[in-house]
Amino acid sequence: MKAVLKGGWIRKGLVIFQFTVSLIIILGAFIIFHQIKFIQNVPLGFDKENIVVVQRTSSLGPKMNTFRQELLRHTDILSVSNTNTLPGRHYEPNDHQLEENPTEAFTLHTMYADENFPALLNLKLSRGRYFLPDIPTDTSSTVVINETAVKELGLKEPLGTRFLKDFLGAKEGEFVTVIGVLEDFNIFSLHQKISPMVIRPIPPGMAGQFVSIKIRPNSNQETLGFIENKWKEYSNGQPFEYSFLADDLNTLYRVEQRTGQLFTLFSLLAVLIASLGLFGLASYTAEQRTKEIGIRKILGLSVFGVVVLLNKEYVKLVAIANVVAWPLAYIVMHRWLQNFALRTNLSLGLFLISAAAVLFIALLSVSFKSFTAARSNPVDSLRYE
Fold it and tell me: Could you tell me if residue 123 is inside a domain?
């Protein structure tokens, strides 16, 4: 008798363990996909859609402006900008010294961009202005910074602030002046906080590594063909390599996407194994309680009542698995979410959905056996040895 009881508890313990593991993995998959959906929809501070990025464009050199003007002749091309980098790519961290405090260096992430960059990404100025091509000094002695840089530098009035000019062959004692402040936008993935940055103008006659082209939504292949033809016309045989900015940004979360896919696969395997274990326990329980089922049916218990009676025990096992799995899953996924500067909340809804899904699968896996036992002839059940 003790051996039977001990064997029963071992079986139940294994079922609880299997469903605990299943719940943790399922919750992990739900939270990972929820976070991926969150970061794909969170406002980045700029428009990323419908932007074609042509790469390795520095070879255009002085022909850059002509190339841009030719592209803008197409009715489906709305804006063209030349930069040395883009959101989601590498930004060079450089030390900058303020005129009033030249002994202290502040690290700002730096990019070079033309006067069309804000219009391309729909960036907003909070103060001042952006570079203007008809003002000669804007191409050599001005910069634009973001709001985070204003805070990091402790500037009460950023406009007119001067940095020591330490780039592009600057002479000792030369300065560049802040003429505008952009509202913050994410230049890196959402794993990182918004960084202080400075934008410098691309010098005349030079070209950056990327030409970004804003096209109308639902533009067809003809527009891309037009861009490629113009590239071939001005690039001296350089290969035409392009991508879409939205796709480039999505690749920043490729690890998370693959992790979510693996969690989904393991969830299916874990649930399958747990369901088989539960089905085996249901078969064993139904066999052990054959006489009890027969007596209860003779006393008037319906088939549905017998099914409920048998399934009650499995609901308890799944409930215990939830009690064990929820805090463990919370700890693990809370730590994983710390990898993101912007992250979703661990809502109770995700835990309830996971619990409901596992409970449904558990009941589905044992209901057939319970229903078969409930429909058995009570006379046959009483004859069972």
Answer: yes
> Residues 330, 35, 117, CA angle at the centre, nearest 5°?
145
Counting the structural domains of the chain, the total is 2
Regarding whether 217 and 318 lie in a shared domain, the answer is: no
DSSP code at position 198? E
Task: Look up residue 134 and give its two tokens.
Answer: 């008809």
Rounded CA-CA distance 14/275 in Å is 11
> What would the DSSP string read from start to end of 210-270?
EEEEEE-TT--HHHHHHHHHHHHHHTTT----EEEHHHHHHGGGHHHHHHHHHHHHHHHHH
Report yes or no on whether pTM surpasses 0.90: no
First to last CA, the chain: 16
Alpha-carbon distances, residue 382 vs 147, 214, 252, 283, 376 (angstroms): 81, 79, 66, 18, 11
Backbone φ/ψ region at 88: left (φ over 0), alpha (ψ -120 to 50), beta: left
Residue-wise pLDDT for 331-375, tens only, equals: 999 999 998 888 888 888 889 888 888 888 777 767 665 555 545
Q: How many CA atoms, within 13 angstroms, populate the side-chain half-sphere of residue 240?
A: 12
Residues of the domain holding 338: 2-41+253-382
Return d(Cα 202, Cα 214) in angstroms, integer: 20
| Interatomic CA distance for residues 124 and 43, integer angstroms | 13
* CB crowding 206-235: b at 16 or more within 10 Å, else e: ebbbbbbbbbeeebeeebbebbeebbeebb
190-242 per-position pLDDT tens digit:
888 899 999 999 888 788 899 999 999 988 889 999 999 999 999 888 899 99
Query: How is residue 12 written in tokens?
Result: 């139940």
Structure token digits, residue 377 = 């002839």
Residue ending a domain, among 252, 276, 303, is: 252
